[in-house]
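Thread: Newbie trying to understand structure tokens

Hi all, I'm a second-year student working on a class project, and my supervisor (Dr. K.) asked me to get a predicted structure for one chain before our next meeting. I've only ever worked with sequences, so writing a 3D structure as a token string is new to me. If someone could post the tokens and maybe explain what I'm looking at, I'd be very grateful. Here's the chain:
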Amino acid sequence: MMTVDKNAALAALGLPSGDHWVKFHVEGDVISYEVAASNSADEAGIPLARKPTGFVERWGGSARVAEDASDEWLTHINEKHLR
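---
Reply by user tm_fold:
Sure, no problem. This is what the structure looks like when written as tokens:
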């Protein structure tokens, strides 16, 4: 784990632009930390794109309407989520 002084600025962590999950442990005047996950940005500050999972290609358009007038929840799902 990396350590910084308790009064150090966030810039002292040396993280690039982007989203980060950082785990901190505070003890006295020292903070230990580790970057658990990071979604960094490129030099221009634009977040890096995620790799496509193929979900839409596989499942897109596969939903089918199930009709049951007595089921209020099913009616709600059909109206809200299916076109």
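A couple of things are worth pointing out once you decode it. DSSP finds two helices and three strands in the chain. The helical segments are 55-59, 72-81. Feel free to ask follow-ups in this thread.
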